[in-house]
Amino acid sequence: MRPTRRQLMIGLSAAALFPARAWAAFPLTLPDAEWRKRLTPQQYNVLRGKQTEYPFTSPLLKEHRKGTFVCAADNHPLFASFTKFDSGTGWPSFWRPLDGAVGTSTDHELGYARTEVHCAQCGGHLGHVFDDGPRPTGLRYCMNGAAMKFTPA
Questions:
Q1: What is the pTM of this model?
Q2: Which one, out of 22, 48, 90, 130, has a CA that is 20 to 30 A from the CA of 107?
Q3: Catalytic (active site) residue 119
């Protein structure tokens, strides 16, 4: 049985609403036009479009000063510098976020389940977390440098 044109249109309309609902669940929500004004094209593509920057391209990869890594979209504190480590992957990596700083969800964009990490304040895509990190957590928060800024202590 083929769906009617009406059923198809209702289904497409409902599907279009789901991303808006997902973004609306965060404390900071802005219209897309405002995000585009606030962010560089690369930041927008990563934070709002869930893209991944090329490895070894972020200046934050070599950032070793004491301080805090914050969300590039809203300056929400994400990671303390002492949790950063060299994972050899080409992306800034951390073994623990600050309490309440990030949220996670499961994505299947590559055909298998991965744990996506987003800013708890604005919902911006930061990267992914893997279970191959160092002690004490055993986790590797593999972040896009374009999604963050560094604030020195």
A1: 0.83
A2: 90
A3: no
Q: Kindly name the residue from 71, 119, 122, 142 that is annotated as catalytic.
A: 142
| Residue 12 in domain | no
Distance (Å, rounded) from C-alpha 131 to C-alpha 67?
25
Q: How far apart are CA 129 and CA 114, in angstroms?
A: 8
The pair of structure tokens assigned to 16 is 């279009």
pLDDT tens, position by position, 40-88 = 999 999 999 999 999 999 999 999 999 999 999 999 999 999 999 999 9
What's the Cα-to-Cα distance from 20 to each of 30, 32, 63, 102, rounded to whole Å? 11, 10, 34, 19
- Expressed in angstroms, the distance from the first to the final Cα of the chain is 64
Q: For residue 16, what are the contacts with CB-CB under 8 A and spacing of at least 6?
A: none
Does 103 map to a domain? yes
Q: The domain that contains 96 carries what CATH number?
A: 2.170.150.20
**In the block, which residue shows the tokens 């990190």?**
133
